[in-house]
Amino acid sequence: MKNSIKILILILITFSCETKKPDINNDNLNVLFIMADDLNCDLGSYGHPQVISPNIDKLANSGVLFENAHNQFPLCGPSRVSLMTGMYSDQTMHTQLDIDLRQTIPDVVTLGQRYRQRGYKSVRIGKIYHYGNPGTIGSSGQDDITTWDYTINPYGRDKDEEYKINTLRPRQYGGTLSWLSAEGKDEEQTDGIGATEAIEQLEKFSKNGQNFFLAVGMFRPHTPFVAPKKYFDMYEMDEMEIPYDGSSDEYLSTIPIPAAISVRWKKDQILLNDKSNHKLAQEIKEAYYATTSFVDAQIGRILKKLKDTGLDKNTIVVFTSDHGYHLGEHGHWQKQTLFDDSTRVPLIFSGPGVTKGVRSNSPVELIDIYPTLMDLTKIETPSHVVGKSLTPIFEDSSHKVRRSALTRWRASQHGNLNFSESGIQGYSVKTERYRLTKWGEKGEHGYEFYDHSIDENEMNNIINNSNYITIIDSLKTHIDERISDARTKPAGLGRQFEEKRLRKVTMTTGDIYEINGKRVKMKTDE
User: Which CATH superfamily does the domain covering 28-405 fall into?
Assistant: First the structure.
């Protein structure tokens, strides 16, 4: 009898545990934040005639697309820290790679951390803060453990077969143009695995009702441009157009020396400015577009799961990239310039509370993502955040939260250009129509000025054109005010320290190294 009573009590306790609902507020909106790596605005939704990106395009049609969004520092690590803290690089003290966020601003409340404070589950999959890409794929890179409850570091076939990758410099991938039309399936690649992990997380959230901030960071299309062969088959290599109008010394003479350095410091890719290497340039550009389509497909898998679970009705989706990317424009490949090709990024919001089918040319910044999400999820924004909420633009696409978007860069001595000083600071503002770039503290190293109504490619520096003198003078005053504000320490930030880079050593899987780190044997298929 006593045993029967015990069994009955046990059954009742078990039933009670199984039917008890999670103690969470399901009225709150969730956030799915998707970030690509080194993705420019060559997308169908941004008007590109070649790039195949149906899933990103569909997302854009279901929400608000910002046509004039810009990063605050055109390099992975500093840009990502700015985005996740809502501050400029002068405030985060981040201008280099391999710097942990809390080295310089230990007390800051990051975007994911703020959601944790409000009872959300904050999850990271892949690259959100800086990773050495591809060197530290599979690790946590320069992650911040305070931002997340849970992290997942995918590692795919692209890492195991890294030695197969074509590259302009042997065994150099992350900072060197490199590419591979890969064998196998999407799900075997690092980003394919990341998408699968995101799908599994969405399935869990759909069942347990937990509010979430799910950040999914793609590693592509960052070099190496690796994607399954079927994505390369989407494009005709011979149709890739390579711009050569910025490849001459004559062009370089029209812009300030620091600007010229920024588009010539990559020695290994200067060969692509020679038309005798046209086919090679086309091959590399095709690989970039193929990898972009591969990333789009993985995003499509995630968004399909969001809809299939019904979570799309209660989830804000944000899509962006850390910076833009040159594909031969100005005679340059990759990033790290103050031209539109490098500063401009795709930025799309979709979901509850976001008007559908809106496109805006208002100048906005990546640091605006933080306060915008706080507004949409009705959470108080920390006082250190200097970005501005973009929600007013959702209802009025012509509304401006600021006059310009601000980006900072530094030009050091690189390449074959003889420049005696290093670390020259450059700041650039992009309005709805104009771009003004200032080099040096007082502009002593020169200015650039471009009118996008007649020069979208920013090839004609008209800083000395007397017809624009009033506009130029106004923008010079404006950029000085913007720089001053960006250098002001925000209230509530806490401690600030100077950055000190810890250079990471990366190795290709299967290569053999001596104890001093020297590579003595490269892995091959033989």
Answer: Alkaline Phosphatase, subunit A (3.40.720.10)
